[in-house]
Amino acid sequence: MPGHRLLHVVGTGASSTVWAGEDAAGHPVAVKVPHDVPAVAPDEALERHVLMAVRHDHLVRLRDVVVLADGRVALVFDLHRGARLDSLVGRRGHLRPGEVVTVLTPVAQAVDALHAAGGVHGDVSAPNVMVGPTGRPTLLDLGAARLVGGGPGEIVGTPGFTAPEVRRGEAPGPRSDVYSLGAIAWFCVTGNGAPDPVGRLDPAVVESHVGPELAGLVAACIDPDPTRRPSAAELARLVFDCAAAEPVEVVLGDDDDASALTHRIRAHAAQDPPPAPAGPRRGRLGRLGSAFGSAPGRLGSAVGRRVLGRTGRSRFHGRPLVARVALVAAAVVLLLAVGVGLQRVLTADARPTGATEGEARPSPPPSRAPGGATSPSTGPDATAPQAGTRSGDALLTDATGPVRDPAAVVLALSTRRARALTARDPNRLATASRPRSPAWEADAAVVERLRSTRVRWSGLVPEVQSARVVGRADPDRVVVRARVSFPAYLEIDRAGVSRLRPADPGTPLDLVLLRQPEGWRVEAVSPPSAS
């Protein structure tokens, strides 16, 4: 093959053969050679070259596109070695929730990078995820992006991981990739592909299969209605927040390594009847006041929101690139800069807090700072790095805690409160606010409304953007002016319908903190007073 030397076959599928080889410089590559000459649309060559510009540390790199003498088009990828995720789960039976976080967070971020460039993967599946010897995941096989939008009734994807709308013959879109990510989470915990129910699954059924940590996000991802699914970026944050990440125990087998590059199953679309039209929306949770201003962010209107409109039929749907910062699993900072049809990538290596040498651990998605990093206020109105809740909890019992590090104290109290609201447990409110105080009464009303309407929240994670002491009448009473934001999270109604609640940047509020025998607690919250 021009410019490359093919060494040996590492896998053969229905549509192509994958070779291990070397490029002209001797770098190891995987070369995917189709069996047949495809009918290439005029814009597909351009689309592949756009894909070559996408860079993410957990997305296989498409290095080259080579047209062979007989007209076949070979795709040249970086060669990755390790265990295929489907093989790994098959040998172990299932992964722990923390391992799912380590695998799925960076893979979702990689899918988001592809979507940001206007692409759609089209075959996100366990066989197309390679887990390296250190537990580092990589999403493989960008060849599906070349095949989406094929003839009517043609399915491109892997059974158990393909979205229902794609199985019905629709072209893959960003939300079908998100369905596949949810199916991967289901597979990692159960060992089976996602179920194929006629309608939306009961949340209790989902939880009985995948456990409470993953139930909310999995249900949202595999929702039959694509518009109800989160985006890949939102999913990455939800996964990261659902459980503490832990290293993946990798078990290698003889069928692993580069054979995982491609796992393509093609079949004619099943003649399933069209799904019944969605019924009327359930009543939404009404206006809920809250002690921390309006929590989360603006809990004053707990109204769900569809975050994106209809999925486009083109895999390169013209979505504009936006400037964003993505933190990836090996703690590599990826800058996706604005470009014309392409992405420019800047990376810098860093080791995540708590990771040992050789272990791959996910770093927080863009809206999160690494847990455990603490920093005291450095000025009268210091912007607050996200203080770790462990150090914040210690400061709650320190007589000078709010003065020493107001951001850490506010984050610790806000996190405790978020956990109480998520659990809908009024007894836990006392860990954040003084019982029977104005703050406690307001949050107790929120909990009661959640319980009575059978609505619950998932992925509620506060972030302190700023905090400073503005008053101290006596040693046991401190007023902290803080702005607490909340990234997007899930709202799940009594029918199990998951809606993505929008992020809220928060607004500055004055928190009156009183020192109690058990530590500092919130007494009241009010708009900032003149100071």
Automatic annotation (TrEMBL):
What EC number(s) does the entry state?
Answer: 2.7.11.1
Note the superkingdom of the native organism. Bacteria
Q: Which Gene3D superfamilies match?
A: Transferase(Phosphotransferase) domain 1
Q: Which organism is it from?
A: Terracoccus luteus
- Entry protein name: non-specific serine/threonine protein kinase
Membrane spanning residue stretches: 321-342
InterPro entries hit by this protein: Kinase-like_dom_sf, Prot_kinase_dom, Protein_kinase_ATP_BS
Top enzyme category: transferase
- Regions annotated as coiled coil: none
Which Gene Ontology molecular function entries are recorded, alphabetically? ATP binding; protein serine/threonine kinase activity
Indicate which residues the UniProt annotation says bind ATP. Answer: 32
All residue ranges annotated as the Protein kinase domain in the record:
4-241
* Lineage, opening ranks: Bacteria, Bacillati, Actinomycetota, Actinomycetes, Micrococcales
Q: Where are the annotated segments for Disordered?
A: 266-297, 351-400
**Keyword terms, alphabetized:** ATP-binding, Kinase, Membrane, Nucleotide-binding, Serine/threonine-protein kinase, Transferase, Transmembrane, Transmembrane helix
